[in-house]
Amino acid sequence: MRCTDLRPGDIMIQYSGGSAVARAITFGQWARGLGHASLVHAGILFDNHYLVQALKDGIVATDIRVDDVQCAYEVYRPIKPNLAEGAANCAKMMLDIHAAHSTLKYSVVGAVTSLVGSASVKSTTGMDDLLTDILGSKGHPFFCSQFVTYVYQFVAEQNGIAASQLFNVGDAKMSPAALACSLDRNTGFFTHVGFMRAGER
Questions:
Q1: Cβ atoms within 10 Å, residue 3
Q2: Contact 34/181 with Cβ under 8 angstroms?
Q3: Can you give the C-alpha Rg of the chain in angstroms?
Q4: pLDDT at residue 201 in the model
Q5: Residue spans per domain, the chain
Q6: What is the pLDDT of residue 172?
Q7: Residue-level pLDDT at 90
Q8: What pLDDT was estimated at residue 114?
């Protein structure tokens, strides 16, 4: 699969590259009994090559043709075009907010605790309140798969779809492997569109 096959709103879930952190995430997901344990990072495409994601510098965009060219990905796409478009736009908005105010930092603690237990889905009011805080520059930390989950759950609610229909778990407990498993199960809203090999762009 190449960049020309990708679309805005696609969810890219990255395989472990073998770093110590990636190995630790893989082990934690395996210990929790999750399938896809070797998937360790996730982001949302803004177009067909810029990936918006939560990294150590907060919400950033990287060009997968250059910055992440040696990474391999599983690629999932929402079936409803309005969800894809909304997610791409919401992710870009949050990228712009962080670029202007540096308020959407990376959450190491959140990434670690996502490997333990479960949490309920935020209410619509809770999602709206969080976005109001973000828009008001109050800030909120995210880790990678939490960012993807929150964006899609929020956009779903804005389109009259219950957040729990997309992901029936709170964003703070969605590890990359749990996200992939949820996407595989939810064939009413998402489809697996392919695998992008390392170096294949």
A1: 16
A2: yes
A3: 15
A4: 93
A5: 3-196
A6: 82
A7: 95
A8: 79
Lookup: tokens for 185: 């199960």
Fill in the amino acid letter for 201: R
Place of tokens 């996407």: 183
In this prediction, residue 125 carries a pLDDT of 65
Of 47, 40, 84, 77, the residue nearest 62 (C-alpha) = 47
- The answer to whether the CB of 190 falls within 8 A of the CB of 79 is yes
Calculate the CA 97 to chain-centre distance: 17
C-alpha to C-alpha distances, 183 to 67, 179, 193, nearest whole angstrom: 25, 6, 11
Beta strand 190-196 with 73-78: parallel, antiparallel or unpaired?
Answer: antiparallel
Amino acid 118: pLDDT? 61
- How far apart (Å, rounded) are the C-alpha atoms in residues 133 and 153? 17
Q: Is the CB of residue 125 less than 8 Å from the CB of residue 78?
A: no
pLDDT means per 10 residues in the chain (201 residues)?
96 91 88 91 95 94 93 97 97 92 86 71 69 76 93 94 90 91 96 96 93
The amino acid at residue 42 is A
Cβ-Cβ contacts under 8 Å for 128 (sequence gap 6 or more): none
